[in-house]
Each structure stands twice: as C-alpha cells, then as structure tokens.
Specification:
The protein folds into three domains: about 90 residues, no CATH class; about 90 residues, no CATH class; about 160 residues, Nucleotidyltransferase, domain 5 (2-Layer Sandwich), CATH 3.30.420. About 45% of the residues lie in helices and about 20% in strands. The protein has eleven helices and 14 strands. The strands form three sheets. It has a seven-stranded antiparallel beta sheet with strand order 2-6-7-1-5-4-3. A five-stranded mixed beta sheet has the order 10-9-8-11-12, sandwiched between helices. Strands 13-14 form a two-stranded antiparallel sheet. Strand 4 and strand 5 form a beta hairpin. The protein is globular, with a radius of gyration of 26 Å. The mean pLDDT is about 90.
Amino acid sequence: MAKTMAQLPYHYGVKVRVFPSTEQKRLIRRNSDASRFIYNQMNGMNNELFWLKQVKIPITIVLDRIADLTERLRKPSTAISNIHGWLNHPDFDSLMKANAIKNYKTAWKLFHQVHQAGTPKFHKRGYTQTYQTSCLYSAKVTVPTMRNGSVRLNDTHHLQLPKLGHLRFKGLPSKILDQADDIRIGTTTVSMDAVGHYFVSLQMGSEYPFVSEKPVIKFKVGIDLNLDNFLTDSNGQMVDNPRYYRTISGKLAKAQRKLSRRARRAKKSQRRLSESKNYQKQRSLVAKLQLKVANQRKNFLHHISTALIKNHDLVVAEELRGKNMLRDHALAMSISDVGWRTLLNMLSYKADLYGRKFLTVNPRNTTQTCSHCGHIMTGKNKLTLADRKWTCPRCDTFHMRDHNAAENILAKGLATL
C-alpha cells in the first residue's frame, strides 16, 4: 500500500507560473470566490454559536439554534452546500470545498498552539485570488507519481488540474523533472497576484531526498543581522544592505498619490472602482512596483541563505522578534525592508534540506560582551547604536561592533550543542 504524504520522509514545494485561457481564468475566479465564501460561512457559524452559548437563560429559540448550528458544523461541507445550492454547480472543484473547511480548522488549531495571530478572521474580497485542491490517486495506481494523479505532469510544460484541465506552465526545476516517477503530489494551490500573474504551488513528497546532502566541511559561522550593513559574520565578512524599498520609495509614493486622486475622481463621479479603467490601470502600476521590490528582496535573501548553508556545517543567528522591533517607528521602515524573519525561515528549511545545522540564540548582551574576555559593558559604559567601534576596558581588545556580536552569537550556539 502506498504511503500518504505525511508518511513520506522528504517534502518539497515548488511554485510555477501558469498561463490559463480566458475560460480557465473564469473558473479560477469562481473557485476562489467559493473558497472564501465557505471559509467565511464556517467563521460565521462558529462566531454565532459562541455568542449564543453566552446566553444563560434557557430560551427555546436559542437552544434550537445552538442545536442546529452544532449539527451543521459536524458535517459542514454538506450543510453549507444544502443551504447554498449554487455551490453544487459543476464549475466548482469538490476538493476546493474540503480544503477551505480544512484551512479554517487549521487556523483554529494554530490559534490554540501559538495564541499570537488571533482567532480566524473573515476573508475580504480583494484583487488577489487563491484556492486549494488536492491530488487524488485511483485505487488502481500502485505507485503514485507526478504523472498519474488528478493533478499531474503531462510533459515538461503542461499540467493537468481538476476542472481547469490542460494548463501551460513555466519553470519547473530539472531535479524535479528527473525524479518525477519517485515523487507524489499533495495539496495544490492555484493563485493570482495583484498584478494578474497566475501561479500553481505544488506540495510534493518522496521516499528519496530532493537534493543530495552536502559533505562535511567543518566550517561554522555566527551571523549578526543589522541595519548598517545587512549581515556581518564571525569571519569578519560583511554583506551590504541593498535597501530595495528605499531606492523605489519616491517613485512608489508618487504612483500611490496618483492612485488616490483617481479613486477620489471615480467616487465623485459615482463610478465603482472596479469599473474605473484609469483607477485599475494605476492600481496595476502600483502593484507592479511593489511586486518588483518583493521579488528583488526574495532573490537576494535566497542567494544569501543558500550560500551560508552550503558553505558551513553550522550556522548560528540571533532570534529576532520583528513584531517587537517594529514598534520603534524611527526604524520600522528599515526593519521591514531588510526581511530578517524571511532570511531566518529560509536558513531553517534549507538546513534541513541540505543536511546542515541551523540554530538561533538569545541575542541578550551579544553586542555588549567582549568576545575575547567576556566583559559586559554596563552602566555609563553601555554601548549605544552610534558606537560602531570600541575597546574593551578589561583586556584592551579593539572590536568592530558587528563582528564582535557575530563571534558572541557563534559562541552561544556552540555552547548549546
């Protein structure tokens, strides 16, 4: 019997750009809207049930409503489709409905585990579209691969998806194509960004690693993330901060002001924004500028994280709390621009992928401690952000602030092993 996705030891994900026809775009939009509607229906029923249970007086109509909602939430897919018959239209993917309900339950599960993101919120309609489906395999299929499921690879440039049919795509890594007969597909996400580009994200699993583990080279490094230069490592090497948002902020601000003017004009003329061609044209321009910055930053972070993982057996970084740091309004824009949290996430999953070790440590006193003798600068001698160079008063060792911090981070990481 074939293993499920959860039972497979290796997992990987790819996101490819697809080029749907006009009819396929219509189906994607309909399924996206239906997925959002089902999610919101689940949220609405749960919210109503919660508040009804706060009523202490045993009113018959309230008790009947509680019983009705409880019964509907036991089998939400059938209950929602029975009330809203349009969801039974053949345009809709049945697995889309199941995934929308699953995503809502997952949101609650994450809330109970983390208690930071808050309870599930209603999903608003926007300029992006997304829905999820699943790859199913027939009982006759003994060895699930990328070529014999409901979501399958027809050739190197075409995918087959439920309801959408034949779909042309671009850019699947050669290592995936070479192992297609050893890989099975799981959850598949179809999406459209604010610019109008369509994508398909494939979750994949295999009995074999997707990349070969790198040989042991016995190199270890600690990295200090800062705003002056993006990254300084314990070997003294620095990576400059590219500041992608800063370079385009003036042009983006001008485009956004123009967008606001067009929105005001449309409302003054009593035209809906969705029907205002000038507004939509400018909105697309603003979205393209924002997408350019996001892609530049993502490409930069991928190159940095891959180089660190491939060239070191152990990478140690400080555990940053970006949400807390963003409270400093003077630095909020610069902190958001560098993408530290994204880099740490990339280092984490790439370390697992290549068989390396990645650790995060508490950054407490990593900047104020002398990496040579362990003296901590306190009181009047405590270093400020302006102090980029300093000399230890105990051992007279001269330090570059960021290099010293990187050495302390590495030492903390080695101490935890």
